[in-house]
Amino acid sequence: MEALVIHSPGDLRVEDYPTPAVGPGQVRVRIRTGGICGSDLHYYQHGGFGAIRIQQPMVLGHEVAGVLDEVAPDVTHLALGDRIAVNPSHPCGQCRFCQLGLQNHCLDMRYFGSAMRMPHVQGAFRQEIVVGASQAYKLADGVSNAEGAMAEPLAVALHAVNRAGPLLGRKVLVTGCGPIGAMVIIAARRAGATVIVATDVMEQPLRKALKVGADEAINVAESPEALAKYAVDKGQFDVLFEASGNERALRAAFDVVRPRGVLVQVGLSGSELTLPFNTVVAKEFDMRGAFRFHEEFGVAVDLINKGLVDLKPLISATLPYRDAGKAFALAADRSQSMKVLLNFD
User: Fold this and answer.
1) Cα–Cα distance, 151 to 93 (Å, whole number)
2) Beta 52-53 vs 48-49: how paired, if at all?
3) What is the pTM of this model?
4) pLDDT of residue 51
């Protein structure tokens, strides 16, 4: 079979790649669709992010859906021909964090398309892949492969919303309206947020934010003063989801979040942030990080299967995997695209 293998920044190749045999408790998935994630872009453009760098050739990709073409005899809840979304997260289940129910912090995590460990964990941008049956979640009839491939970023957004605590009746600010920020808007609305304001520095993602449920979208590059009305009386927002990884966005939000508000940092930055912690103390902010997900993947698939979320407005384009260079360039252009998908048919 063929796979998309990154060797160094800008050096993404279509290469032959072996498929292992299916063992007990496993299934073989014929990949149909894959979504290009921000981390894939970082590997493609820069060879990694932060201290995480590519040290050996690695198959990219972790947002995928496909069809089962082999099922181990001991797997009884899945069948040949089932269309599935693949959970790219494979915690060990044995370490102390897994035992505490914090599987996203597993000490022996194997996450598709990640250079965080050596040897790297190979990704899922390939024509077929063998995974544990527990990583395969059935898609309902009528749900597209494209929607199934978006279960992973939706799970990230659902985990961020879980980290915020109850949102029923809350006023929410989302800074950064890329795919994750947009899905946070969707998830926050499902969780009961009554007011959602989104900010970004570009018009295209802000238009998408409005389509998926934001009440107001503010271009802070063109109208930096537009948030000022929310700063009255020490701030109007109960919860901030910071999805841009931009220090200026986070600092600006400090003025509009009320005392004892919750700040959830979802976006990763290329460097460490410097923050006004005197404000954190004075306003008694509760700052929380949100990293990956665990049980939220199954919830994401359920929401998609039941039609309780609509992710289709976020799909910008679908290109053949052999046109990966063009697809990655398009995915990097925020003025044109939100979520770019690869077709492996």
Assistant:
1) 22
2) antiparallel
3) 0.95
4) 82
